[in-house]
Write a structure and sequence with these properties.
This protein is an alpha+beta fold and 582 residues long. It has 17 helices and 15 strands. Helix content is 32%, strand content 19%.
């Protein structure tokens, strides 16, 4: 067989192939077969359109309906006009760009930034969790708060009383704070000054112009001695008690702690001695009353580790150190002094004492009870009218702005009220005690210094940022400190103690609950290392009969054990007997 070249059509009318090509016989030449080529509309465009991504059975069914070949119409291959009218050009131009800084640009760009969208979702989730935790914490605090500012997390196992409760103590009274808030008592007469001791220096008015932009470095006064003597160790109070000048004796710090009891959070204790018809309110050596609290009424609890510079104990020591040095720095140390009737009763000869004046003042509570308290003033100021004004000097300390939430160096000049409001929230008890002491001492002005660390991690170096002055009565009204309620608390406690027999008692602020307990303790308590291990909470309250019976059983058991040990040893001499007795 030869090679078949196929059919080559001839065009007799002109150049090029004929208008109607000849159909080979193998394809059914001469027969009228409807032949429809592929559509020149969007079918071609979809082949190269990579943005189209049909997914799902519905999209697959739609794609199957758009077949490339369409045999429904036999005239489409013969009518070119119909094909041209259905033809659409595929647009390959990019979509128009929207302005980047328009109002909707940020939202239109979100679908193109899946990573940023995930981060925003995660951030919103974290914020929602924080808000939910804050609400839960607020709910728990609101349920556990029995008085304003009481912190519910103090009921944790780490909260311990300021003094160890011993097995031979008997609880006589338990007073909730709610009972204190309802009391009211007005002292009829003005207090009487029985004696003034010590010497005070003049206040340096230059510190009224100190500001955060020009602070003063806090100095250290190691050569000056500060005395924290309790009531019964005061020779002047002993002399006044022998002269029968009053019935109740105390110090301004002890009275202020009693007057501000409903505002306290941390545990503290006061010793009361009933001797004859007289009452002496004392504090133990190394008592919590000697230290200033920091952030006591704040919602956030401070670290418990004593080695941390921001723990409650470390900050209390730091605040006491700052308060003492500040009270001496703002004085004219080389200038004139104001001396009182007698010298400082606690300073020995040749010893340099701090600038402190002691005013022994007497209040008449009723016809039978008079109260004498030793009150302190720290400085004197010249009155424009020619008189003299007594001042009390105290310092607030800032340790870390991230914890308190307010940076003193930025807010003291423009927002002093916000700084003071934050301190009133975090240190309500301390400020109330200072105000009560100023009222008791009869001070004309109380100066508050704002002292901050040079660096948040340096608790040795400090700067005085500013000093503000307030009148005690005006400041008491500002912090909602009611003097009638203060004296009502003192009067009720005195009346309770006057009903007790002669002996020694101790007031203990419960570390976990807003209440005060009064225990009867042995006469030799808090002397010669008496304090031992504390008892559990359920064993701290015991009736008198149970205590006596338990003591007799313990004595009998100890005697039987000693006799048995002596019999077993066969009487090996004095050394064995002494060891067994020990």
């Amino acid at each position: 067989m030869g090679f078949d070249m196929g059919v080559v059509p001839s065009n007799p009318d002109g150049w090029g192939p004929p208008d109607v090509p000849a159909i080979p016989q193998s394809l059914g030449g001469g027969a009228s077969i409807p032949f429809a080529p592929f559509s020149r509309s969007d079918k071609l465009g979809r082949i190269a359109d990579w943005t189209r991504n049909p997914a799902g059975p519905a999209a697959f069914a739609a794609a199957s309906r758009d077949s490339v070949f369409d045999f429904t119409s036999a005239d489409d291959s013969l009518v070119a006009g119909a094909e041209d009218s259905s033809f659409r050009l595929v647009d390959a131009k990019p979509p128009p760009r929207q302005p980047r800084f328009g109002p909707k640009w940020r939202f239109n760009q979100r679908p193109q930034l899946p990573q940023r969208q995930d981060e925003e979702v995660e951030a919103r989730r974290r914020l929602a969790e924080k808000e939910r935790a804050r609400r839960d914490r607020h709910f728990q605090n609101s349920r556990s708060h029995h008085h304003p500012g009481f912190r519910g997390n103090q009921s944790s196992s780490s909260a311990k009383p300021s003094v160890d409760i011993q097995p031979d103590w008997t609880m006589r009274e338990q007073i909730p704070f709610a009972n204190f808030t309802k009391l009211s008592f007005s002292v009829a007469d003005q207090p009487e000054d029985l004696l003034l001791c010590g010497a005070v220096e003049f206040y340096d008015r230059a510190y009224d112009r100190v500001n955060p932009k020009a602070p003063r470095r806090l100095e250290r006064f190691k050569s000056r001695n500060f005395f924290k003597v309790t009531t019964t160790d005061d020779p002047v109070i002993r002399r006044l008690a022998e002269e029968d000048k009053a019935t109740v004796f105390a110090t301004d710090a002890i009275l202020a702690a009693l007057m501000c009891t409903p505002r306290s959070i941390q545990s503290w204790d006061i010793v009361v001695q009933r001797v004859g018809n007289k009452l002496f309110f004392d504090k133990r050596d190394g008592s919590q009353l000697d230290l200033l609290t920091v952030n006591e009424t704040a919602q956030e609890q401070l670290p418990e580790n004593k080695e941390d510079i921001n723990s409650a104990h470390s900050l209390a020591v730091e605040a006491t150190y700052i308060n003492q040095n500040f009270s001496q720095q703002v004085l004219h140390r080389e200038g004139e002094k104001v001396t009182f009737d007698e010298p400082n009763p606690f300073a020995s000869e040749g010893e340099e004492a701090a600038s402190v004046g002691y005013r022994y003042r007497r209040w008449k509570l009723d016809d039978e009870i008079n109260l004498v308290a030793r009150c302190e003033v720290h400085a004197v100021n010249a009155d424009p009218s020619g008189g003299r004004q007594f001042l009390t000097l105290n310092a607030l300390n800032e340790f870390d702005p991230k914890i308190t939430g307010v940076d003193w160096r930025q807010k003291l000049e423009t927002q002093r009220g916000a700084v003071l409001a934050t301190e009133l929230k975090n240190n309500a008890n301390k400020l109330a005690r200072w105000t009560a002491q100023a009222l008791l001492s009869g001070a004309d002005m109380m100066k508050l210094g704002y002292v901050s660390r040079v660096h948040p991690r340096d608790h040795y170096n400090h700067s005085v940022l500013t000093v503000m002055g307030y009148k005690p009565r005006d400041f008491a009204a500002q912090i909602n400190l009611n003097t009638a309620n203060m004296w009502g608390i003192v009067k009720s406690i005195v009346d309770i103690c006057m009903k007790f027999e002669e002996g020694k008692y101790v007031f203990v602020k419960d570390p976990a609950k807003p209440q005060v307990r009064i225990y009867e303790v042995p006469s030799d308590a808090f002397e010669n290392d008496y304090v031992e291990e504390p008892l559990p909470e359920e064993e701290q309250v015991r009736p008198l009969a149970d205590v006596d019976a338990t003591a007799q059983e313990m004595d009998a058991a100890a005697e039987a054990e000693a006799n048995g040990a002596l019999a077993a040893n066969g009487g090996d001499g004095d050394k064995s007997a002494e060891a067994t007795a020990a």
